[in-house]
Structure formats: structure tokens, C-alpha cells
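Support request, priority: normal
Reporter: lab tech (M.K.)
Component: structure prediction queue

Hi team, I submitted a job for Bromodomain adjacent to zinc finger domain protein 2B from Lottia gigantea yesterday, and the status page still shows it as pending. I've pasted the exact input below so you can check whether something in the sequence is tripping the parser. The sequence length should be 416 residues. Please let me know if I need to resubmit or if it's stuck on your end.
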Amino acid sequence: RVASGEELEEIVKCLHCRGIREKELVKVLQRYVDCPNYVINTGKKNAISDEQKELESELSKDSEKLFLEVEHECDLSALETMEALESRIYQASLQVKGWKSIAKATDDPSLELISRRKTPENKNQRHPLDIAKERLLLLESNIERRYLKPPLKIEHDATPGLLTWRNVVAKVASPAQLVLCVNQLSSSISWEKSIMKVKCEICRKDDNEAQLLLCDGCDKGYHTYCFKPKMDIIPDGDWYCYECISKKWQCAACCEKKTKKGGKRGPKKKSLSLTSDKKDTESNNAESPTPTPPPSVEKKKKEPPSVTRDADLILCKTILSDMEKHDEGWPFLQPVNGKQFPSYRKIIKHPMDFNTMKTKLRDNLYKSRIEFAGDAHLVFDNCVTFNEDESEVGKAGHDMREYFQKRYTDLFPDDS
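Reply from support: The job had stalled in the queue. We restarted it manually and it finished. Here are the results:
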């Protein structure tokens, strides 16, 4: 019962201004804060009897005891929610190498989880909320960075979203706030990249996890025995699949400049990694832990640069026209609408699309076919970064990449 205006003011101060229900309650109570006490206490004419005071005192003690019990149960529930996320991350193998899940605090017999209203008397007595905060921050720091999504994904040191999240966790004062932070972390994890959902790209089965080799570039899986010939030894260190190798390309002009400056000419590497035979690449994977692109064929005598460039760009226009007519090319015809997808520009730093490439061809902005191929790869790389592999747009991106590689190899066999 509110017996004075001072108590009413204290209640208003304790209510959170951003809470949905509390904000409405503040508006209602604010009407009575400035009212005189005699207006609030108009119904209080007769003095309260001693029996009523004793009854109210007993009810107050019972309600306070019940409140403390419910509060402690909420703290324990928040701790269990955090531990459930911890177990899920560990089972999905989303943690950094070397990190192991800690035993649950709720199952530890040496720990005594006490109410936050009590002061710990020894090291074995801990508040559940304090344990949950510490372990949640520790859990976040041990998640592999590539499995995080915006706004918590790290590109350099730490994103503003991640710093804000860490500060909020450190200042958590209630189980509701902690559960909110747990849910935010859970929603920022790419669960679809979990090893629990990985299937072999060759046989499309998810069995024999011990023989399932994960690519360090795209997190796709391959059974060692599905390669031809099969891979007898699991490679140490980073390993990349044939798709990731095919995405990597080097500028021929830059490589030639480095060769001229150095004076010595080493073994000639391919300027553009475009694989046309999947079996050859899989064979390379079996021979070395980190497969490297095969050397390119020696080029024939060069024609005058202007003639070669014009001829190349005519063929590039043909490739682009074919890609625009392709059934799977519809997501890449125009630039991505920033209003429809507000987060696109935050994730994709260098957007590219077929219409922009057509404009650059029309304005003669491409100096060589290598630059054109680079923009084409940029379109498909952006698609992989922003879209899930199993989505409609993601599948279209993979199909268009294969189609582009095939057409490019057919028209420019010297780069294959």
C-alpha cells in the first residue's frame, strides 16, 4: 500500500522508462505525484486497528518470502538458459580450437547458489546471475569469429554492436536482461554452418563425421573417401575445397610487374583460376593438404594491345549478354535495393551487378578481360557473403558462377 507521496515518487523512480508496461504505469502514476497528500488520502478517515496492522505485517512477510523465492528461481532459470546455449555451441563445433565446455554450475555439487539478497560467506557460495554473466562473456570470446553475423560479427577489432553487447552483459542486473543478451548472441550465430548440419557435397550424406573434411573457406564438407582417388590422410592446417580455389584469381598485369622488378622469372602461375574439370581438382586435393592451381599453358605471341583489348571486350560483351539471358541470372541484373535490404551496404563493401558491368563495357572502362572477370567474380562472391547457400538467390549464384567459368574458359582457353 502507498501511504504517502514520497513512496509514490520512489515507485515512479524505480520503473524503467523504456519498459513497455512500466512506461504506461509511469504515465498513470505521474498524475498523482504532484497531488497534495490530503487528496491521495481522502479515503483514510479512520485509524487502522492493531489487528489490521498485525495481519498486514504477516501478509507482508509472507509476500516478501515468496518474492525472494521467485527471484532466486528466475536467476537459476537465466543461468540454465545460458548453459543451454553453451552446450548447443559446443555440440555444433562453433568454438575456437582448444576450448572445451565447462561443467554446468547448476550440476556442480561444490557450488552453493545463493540468493542475490544474501552476501557470500565463502568462495563456494555464488550468485547465479554473476556466474551467468561471467560465463556468457567467456562463451562469446570463444566462438569462432566466422560463425558470427552482424551486428556482432568482427571485421577488424570489434564492431560497435559487439562492444555495446559486452557492456550490457557486464551491467546486467536482472535475469530478464541476461536472457535478452543470451537471445541476442544466439540470433547472431550462423547455426546453418554448424557441423551438425553439414553434408558431404559429393554424396550428400551427413554420416561418418570423423571422415568429414570441412573447408576453411566456405565450411562445406567432403568425405575423404568420396574423392577419386580417396584421401587416406586428413591434412593438417587449413584446407580449401575446389570451389574456394576457383574463386581465387591473380591479376596478370600485377604478376608481370613483380617479375620485371625482381629480374628473375619463376614458374609461371595461372592468372585466373577457372576450373573446368572437377575431377582433376579433387585429385589435387587428395595429394596435398592445401591444393594449388595448376600452371597455365604458355601464351602465344601477343598481338598489339589495342587490337587484343578490343577483341577481348567484344567476347566479354557476349558472355555478359548470355548471363543476362540465363534463367538464374535474375538476382544480379540490377543493383541491390538499399531500402529493401538496409543491411546490404553494411555487409557488402564493394557491390557489383550485371547492369553496372554493362555500363563499364559501354564506357570502355575495362582495360582488360581480367578486370571484367574480376567484376564477375565479385558479383558471385557478394552473393555468397550475403545469402545462404540453400536460399533461392544463393543457389542461383552458384549456378551462375559455374556458367560464367564455362563460358569464359570456352572463349578464353589461354586463361584456363
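Residues 50-91 form the longest helix (42 residues). Confidence is low (pLDDT under 50) at residues 257-303. Let us know if anything else looks off. Ticket resolved.
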